[in-house]
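Interim report, section 4.2 (structural modelling).
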Amino acid sequence: MTCTIESKERGGIINPMYTCQPAGGQYASIGVKDCIPLVHGGQGCTMFVRLLFAQHFKENFAVASSSVHEEAAVFGGTKRIVEGVEVLARRYPELRVIPIITTCSTEVIGDDIEGTITACYKMLAKEFPGRTIHLVPVHTPSFKGSQVSGYDEAVKSLVKTLAKKEQPAGKLNVFPGWVNPGDVAELKFYLDEMGVDGTILMDTGRFDSPMLPDKSLQTEGSTTVEDLQGTANAIGSIALARYEGAGAADYLKNEFGVPCIHSPTAYGIANTDTLLRNISQLTGKPIPESLVWERGRALNALTDLAHMFFADKKVAIFGHPDMVIGLAQFCMEVEMKPVLLLFGDDNGRYKRDPRVAELKKANLDFDMEIVCNADLWELERRIKEKTIELDLIMGHSKGRYIAIDANIPMVRVGFPTFDRAGLQRHPTIGYRGAMQLGETIANTLFAHMEYTKDREWILNTW
Amino acid sequence: MGSKVDDLFDYVQERCLWQFHSRTWDRSENIDGIIGKAIDLLAGREPAADTPAERCFVADAKVMVADFRSRFPWIREASETEVTEVLGGLRDRLTDLAITRSRNHELTHTLY
Amino acid sequence: MPMVLLECDQDIPERERHIYFKAPGEDSRDYLPAANAPTIPGTLSERGCSFCGAKLVIGGVLKDTIQMIHGPLGCAYDTWHTKRYPSDNGHFQLKYSWSTDMKESHIVFGGEKRLEKCMHEAFDAMPEIKRMVVYTTCPTALIGDDVKAVVKKVTAARTDVDIFTVECPGFAGVSQSKGHHVLNIGWVSEKVGTVEPEITSEYTINFIGDYNIQGDTDVLQRYWDRLGIQVIAHFTGNSTYDACRSMHRAKLNVVNCARSAGYIANELKRLYGIPRLDIDSWGFNYMAEAIRKVASFFGLEEKAEELIAEETAKWKPQLDWYKERLQGKKMAIWTGGPRLWHWTKAVEDDLGVEVVAMSSKFGHEEDFEKVIARGRNGTYYIDDPNELEFFEIMDKAKPDIIFTGPRVGDLVKKLHIPYVNGHAYHNGPYMGFEGFVNMARDMYNATHNPLFRLAAIDIRDDRALLVEEAA
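Predicted structure of the assembly:
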């Protein structure tokens, strides 16, 4: 039984699994407080991404566009950046950070972003003396990588632009990757329990925001300029996603000597164990009894499910690469068989990923197929051609019709999950995430058994 | 007569999309065509409907005339001369609004 | 005070040209918001791009057609799962999106070979599909790929397929609107007249500018069926590619959305002498009027009156029930353009609802002529609105309900204002008699949602609790 890794043979895409780099740049940027990114490109590059965020979070996020029209496309659009920065600065007095996110059009035209930023700083100094607005160049041409690398690039660029060496602050940088508010809450809970002062990059906790009597808007990122500046003075960095934020952690290590650990993405029990040990190692703080109990509760819950219901269930997983790998590891912990893993872009590093190497070396009792640069047709085709049999699909909502049409139970996880309510506020990482995800899988399988009248009577006595 | 034109004008403003078609020539064709058919109908004549365009004008005019009759009792009593005069006034008002004084920059584009 | 410079626009005074407040006693001919004009960078405009105007709004509705998007993957991802236009063949058009997944090497060396390969792959993957629309995007337009030459090659190699090309990169024009235009004109010039339809009735129409949002087309189709009218093509709700190639054979073009598809109706008039009849499909009053006009064109008046009487008897009592409860509610319409003028009188006449503010993302001056003619005094009419303007207008106009998209809907929730999806509907269809009852029901359920009353309470405030208890 083996694990094979290959790339999609077709050149084109039928049903993309990811969107393009600027979307990732925008996702990282909205995690910063008092920040409105300015996307330098056509208006669709902004409008659709704002809609995508709204679909997933059921919240509105501010993202501006330089509104590149034909004239700018032909004669260059840098003037529109300067104008956009000035308009933003004037109309949003609390604004402190403007990431300038490029797109395919403006990268093809070759607009000089760094030079334009210099011009913008001159304009800002003249028009807004005494006010500091940080401009962050984020190069995210859509014809390279995907939303995944776009996110990584933006986090790295924000850190590079803002990090400032000062006195050691004793804080821990945590780069969780492209995760949900529920995951950020889980991480904060661990840091609190361990007495660790941490900086989450990006802190998306307030993306889960209230309706308040005073009608105020609270939906915003919580990572401040000071947080980003202080990353250079941390006692260490933990990067939970190799392809989403780890680049920034590496930069801090190389540039400022901030020790850095690439911790496995914290899906499942063992990966969370490693995370807590790594936090403990970097900070010197012990793992408290309370987390031993957390872990125990998750194990207790999952044990009810694993060998009775989950064992031998064949699963396909698609989504962000770190999440897919993490979920595959989690599935194996609960005796499921992740037979097909799909990564949605052509990043050559996936094939060399040490976690993938481990899967290849492992003595699997089933065949696992990993497809890089995959689209969702890779999944649909295998189902239609019956070259694969699945008991469960795990992935984001863009794959919903595959599951619906093939009548295969599907658990929504990752980004975006717009066809299910409230998933963004539930953790999928950490012990609680493992427990809740396991229970969601079980309930999805149970509902399917009832709906298809497939041994639904088993549950009579469970 | 002015207030009668006002009545009809306000009605057309609120209900008739044909006054605001894309280009000057469309608007002018529609206004002249439909008002012309409406005069026929109000005068009790069967309007000519020999071409598809004419049939379309009649379709629009019929609905408008039925509404005129139900909303403005005076029009039921009006003589043909008065009808022609009031609807002529309406046509002028519409032409003034939708063409002559329209601030729509696209009206005179030569292409659609 | 005709044109308005809002407080939030003090630093971008050119916005004054785009915002009109209709006041009594003024001659509205003197004022018309500037529209279809460039957007000011950094304003947080709500506009999309012209590519999406072509693909997502019109071409992507075709239920039997591969939508090949020649560009990076984002353009395909973004214009997929963002619309609610079903079809009667299992929603093929909702399920798939195609991209040539353009990479840097294609930017450098050209993407034509890539496009050709992807087109063959797409046909091979779904051998039952024989129709395709190819779209250029910003980068493929900038590098100058000769898409039409590739289409010619693929068509030569596959004799049973037909392919249409839309060259409309996102940066073209100033909004979605340019994409509507390019697709309309391209289609009528290249594809209309290339298929002869089977004629089954002497009464034939094209129904133009309806995209079967939540089944709108189905509702209207039932009316045409009742009248014995054959719809040669819906442009493009629940439509096939070939049906839209045979539009030249209809005797009448019935136009709903004049913004996105008025162009093709104009061209069909010019080229084939088919008259253009503009109607409103939303609202009781309007729907009856539309049916009367279409029927009158064909001399089917009696059948029309029967149909209207029957539908009215069936749905009017329900409509009136809602009207009684919605009377006097204030509404804002924050959508694309045409729905402003389609809806403002319809909700006023049929439901007693006052529209107090309206904004259009991509409407032209023509749309503002229509809506200002129809709309109320004391109402704001705004072109290409931005986010700060939205807050200020909401504060001034104080609507009880907003028809807008989900993102703005998520925003207004925080302001304790309910939203109904003005693009894709909450629980449609909204067209036709039954559709307008659906719309009224959604408005009623939104404005009577108890959660908004609860949201206003601060639980720390004893008096608020007492007042609530007493009430």
